[in-house]
What we know:
There is one protein chain. The chain is of the alpha+beta class. It folds into 3 domains: 8-218, PPPDE domains (endopeptidase fold (from Nostoc punctiforme), Alpha-Beta Complex); 230-387 and 401-409; 426-512. Helices cover 53% and strands 9% of the residues. Strands 5-1-2-3-4-6 form a 6-stranded antiparallel beta sheet, with helices on one face. Strand 2 (58-64) and strand 3 (67-72) form a beta hairpin. Helix 11 (309-321) packs parallel to helix 14. The longest helix is centred in the middle third of the chain and has 26 residues, at 188-213. The radius of gyration is 26 Å and the shape is globular. The model is unreliable at 1-26, 174-200, 202-207 and 213-233 (pLDDT under 50).
Amino acid sequence: MDSTTNDPNQFSTYDLSYLSNTTADSGNVVYLLVYDLSHGMAKHFSLIFLGKQIDAIYHTSIVYFGVEYFFGQDGICAMPYSDGCNNMGRPISKICLGYSEIPLVLFQEYISTLNSSTFGVGTYDLFKHNCNNFSNEVAQFLTGVGIPEEIINLPSEVLSTNFGQILSRYQRPLENQINQSVTSVNNPADWRTRTCQTLRETLRKTRKRQKEESTDPDLSDDRVEIKPKRKAPKYSDPPIVYADVDGVSAVKKILELVGDALSEEERHLMDDWTDYLKTSGEAWKIDDDHLSLISRLLSGEDGKFPPNVPLLTLEILQSAALKDDFVLALHGDRKNHRLMSYIYKIESLTLAEQEEIAKLLCNFCFQPCSFDWLMYISEWTEPDGSPASNSRVTIRVAVHTLLNDKLTTLQKVGVDLIFNLSLRELFEESATELATAVLQYLHLSNLDEDRVFLCLTALVRFMAISLNEVPALTQMLGPDINKFRGTSKRIDELVEQINVKLAAINAKASDD
Length: 512
């Protein structure tokens, strides 16, 4: 992680133009701002007082969507970031931590959750729970990457000394001064409203400055449209979900089966799952310990747990996936990818587990934010060395379940999952891979009308994404789509749409 500059006099003006130009391949930029609370004192006097050279006493903040977030005595605060200078002075460095695909609305909910729990008013501790701990946690949430360790470790090393105690006398007044000019999140609803206003004002000023500096006609309008990172569902069809699942009963059954094999703390964690499934808006209760236990239950403990324990665990997740805030818990697994790593191994799992996994992914399509989570492209490496991402794993499951011929019901869920994925604006590569699987599946005989309708609907939508390759694959791989004509009126309409697209590509080929 390289800072933009270490020279405060060369600190560049923050550019928000990426908000309107960022593509789905990069995501939104996440920056770490690093300040020196000693304003140069540490660098000049640390050797005398500490016996070692310390360059700065670090205060950090996170910049996301043009707003700067930090933690202090009054909880989490937010303020617009424009020229890189505020009441704390000018940052000594600006570090690009990477990119994030987390939408602004979800991020605001996450910040509000932190402010009502671990980083709320009265939780600040100069040595153990400070602004740098906050920045580290938020950075991992957004990008999976923490802030530099030397920043995290410095407070306990320096601020506990006599020199640090002297500095601490000036920190509280400084924070009080800062808090007079920032937006507190003590009232989450009001904070979300004011933060959005702050964001829009910052964007508008930046766009105005760009217009003055450029003759680009695209910058001639001061109005700013804030678009979500991923496109909204392109089609109005509701996703197919498996809502007839009782996660609370699944928790109870697991405790009956393996309760003695769990520690007292783990049994309490299972009780937390029950509380969460029975309530709403409390995803903050599900943290890394809860996900670690889920991972252990899914693994089956190498045969030590009864074979239906992983199935019951998947039912818990299926039930949770239908809740609108569960994605907050999912983002807590961005570093370890335990859930997706388990799903990645779908081909080696039992057929019953494979079917429950496909149902789980269908349920993830129910909420827009968790649907986006399924299609994140940030990569990690599996133990076998294979590159993986949420998107790759999701496509892998859809293709495998559709083309697996060992269990009819597994294929049925595979069709449902692919139909759900066709509701979103996918990348062309994903649309092509899914279309290839659909075409192979349609070669099967005795397909019922509903399965054919869902597959042809998805195929038409994939053709709208991959204008040339999917129609070409349809002609090469078959089957002859006209064989489905006469099945039903709605299928006849889809057959006609496909024939029109095939005719268009044939006409283009003739012209060439």
